Amino acid sequence: MTLNVTYAWLIPLLSAIATAALAILVNRVGPRTELRRVFTFLAGMLVLWNLNFFVLYAVSNHDLALHLTQWARVGGLFAPPAVLHLVVALRPNRSSRWRTALLIDYGFACVLLVLNGLGLLVADVRPFAWGYSSVGTSFYNLLTISVFGNFAATVALLLYDYRTGTEAGLRLQLKFWILGALIALPLALTNLLPAYGISVYPLGSLGVAVFAGIVAYAIVRHRLMDIDLVLTKSVAYGAVSFLLIAPAFGLALWLQRESFGRIHSDFSLAILLMLIAVGVLFPALRLRAESSIERSLFREKHEYRAALAAFTRSIVRILDRDKLLSELTNTLTNLLHLDRLALLLDDGERTYLVRHATGIPAAIGEFGSTHELILTLRRRDDIALRGELEASSDATERAAAETFRKNGWEVAMPLAVSDRLIGFIALGRKRNLEAFYAEDLQLLSTLAAEASIALENARLYEELKRSRDIIERTGRLSALGTLAAGIAHEIRNPLVSIQTFFQLAPQRRHDPEFFTSFLSLTAGEVDRIGDLITELLSFARSPSHRVEDVDINDLIERTTLLLAPEARKSRVKLARVLATDLPVIRADGDQLKQVVINLVLNAIQATPASGTVTVLTRRHRHQGNPLCQIEVRDTGVGIPPKMIEDIFNPFFTTKDKGTGLGLSIAHQIATEHGGFITVTSEMDRGSSFYVNLPLTSSIDSHTTNDEPEAALPLRYGRMAKL
Ligand code: ADP
Asked: 653 C-alpha to center of ligand 1: Å?
């Protein structure tokens, strides 16, 4: 077998290799879905189809070429239905209609396969401009029909799916496929022309490689580029490559003619391919080489810049202001090896004070809003360098440079929020006396922007926490009001007896029995009132937010003492069923009292006279974890199923004078203890609220937890069972 002198076979060969590589790639990345399987089949057919043309152009032996192409032609027979199949496989819901259509389509390709096997499709191969070309029989028209029919159906289906599709990701994928089809299909049709005696170099191989490339990209990548951007980029890339390669290629042609007196076509083609390869590979290789050289030669610099960039990304997640300030100062000082650093913030009165500092302290630690340094930073709104300010023609900037010099500062990073300078970070010298490079300054500029946002976030978070405290206090005061009304009612009765005693005492002065019976009657009452008032005052004072060992049963006993008057007032029985095996848990006792009070008050209010509210405690397990459970059970009106999702929302109430805060606060407190509240309810039968607290409480870490989830009671760890 001898190869023909021209390189017409090169393009189908390269296309076959590229398509096979794409099939391997699609199969190696991600799971083997039907789409990927169909793509692999199509790629296989396209490889065969390309090999068919490779054989036609590369093999000079007539019989061998005829024999080999008969095999390779199989690709050309099955590729058209496979293209349509691929588009059908992309559809999210495949109708049986399309399955039948595909079956017929593949059946038709099988008929062509039989005809091909019998030698009834192509009669011969004849010498042609670039090698051989197939001589089709009249059956060959069936192949042409299959190609045209499938291509038209493919384009129509792609356009239809794109127009009717509603899923954005799928539509973008379809956009890529349409682009691929519009480039590839017309080019693929040129491969039919030689069989009809039209002498045009078939460009189908190029077309199918482009199609396979675009489709493989759209299958493998989930983050697809904006197609307009792809087109713009490709056009720009093509234009620039052409502008650079065309003159170089022209020069190569001219040099050939000058040196050898003629232009050799194969040699010229090789040069052109080389130029294209250099043009394509150079930018990618340059970037790789740059970064790996930087990484290996200037390791330390590379690492600290990577660390600084990572710190910049993580900084907005810190919500605690003090932590944020200390991390900012320490990380910058350590990463840049600074001899000093000062972080100054506006105190709210337009004076900038040092809030955090490392290394040598600043000589001047306070700046008014009209200070030259502040004016300069506000005007520049970007990092200021001492050297730059010293060389400035502006007198204010030069005065600012003087402040830099006095404090030993080299760089100042302004921190600004919506055009307001909230502070700045002043950096001293690097200990190794290296300068601040442009790359450093760029990173620091991004860090300053992120730090400003983080500081603002921390401020907002503080405010949020304050409003949360106000909400909690409002809820507490509301419960207190209800409790106080009941207790006042209770105190009145013994007071009446004491009053009666004082009225009768002068007359019964000599009646010891009167005194004894009265004393025994009132002593208990007075003690009870004393206890009640103590409990009430303890509940009324601001919660200490102290985590301590809490005996839940004892807490319930003391709290129900406070609630008993309200129950009596409503003529509801208040009972307790307490487990004897409950361990002491780590918790905020004041807060847990509030939970019990809120739940029991709700239960009393929901229960009609002569009903019962029971507080029960027990050990419990949830997902294998041991819990301490407090149940508040009532025989009240129950909660309508569609309302159960809402009752924990802040301000949701069905009561005339309700605040709608009781349950949302209870939920929040339970969550902060690492626990959760669940509800079961049945209309007209009653409800049960279960407070589940972990035995090994995480409240110690929860109280210092600054994650935003804990900020607002918007997510509930509850389940509503009905
Ligand atoms: P408030 O008591 O101020 O209305 P809550 O947050 O404590 O606020 O309760 C919200 C709503 O949940 C109540 O208005 C009530 O409709 C319902 N609810 C709470 N507990 C019960 C209960 N035990 N039985 C019936 N409904 C209840």
From this structure: 6
Between the CA of 162 and the centroid of ligand 1 the distance, in Å, is 51
Residue with CA at minimum distance from ligand 1 atom 13: 653
Closest atom, ligand 1, to C-alpha of 478: 3
Alpha carbon nearest to ligand 1 atom 8, residue? 660
Any residues with CB less than 8 A from the CB of 76 and at least 6 apart, and which?
45, 48, 49, 52, 143
Q: Is 202 within 8 Å of 131 (Cβ atoms)? A: no
Q: SS3 of 95, please? A: coil
State the Rg of the chain over Cα.
42
- pTM for the full predicted model: 0.58
**What's the half-sphere exposure (Cβ side, CA atoms, 13 Å) at 13?**
10
Helices 589-606 and 512-540: angle between axes, nearest 10 degrees: 110
How far, in Å, from the CA of 628 to the mean position of ligand 1? 23
Q: Which protein residue has the closest C-alpha to ligand 1 atom 7?
A: 662
Query: Mean pLDDT by 10-residue block, N- to C-terminus, for the chain (722 residues)?
Result: 60 94 88 89 96 91 92 95 93 84 95 94 86 88 93 94 88 89 88 81 88 89 75 84 90 91 83 87 88 83 87 91 93 93 90 91 86 94 92 94 94 92 94 88 93 93 88 86 85 83 85 82 81 83 83 94 92 95 92 94 96 96 90 96 91 90 92 93 96 76 40 34 34
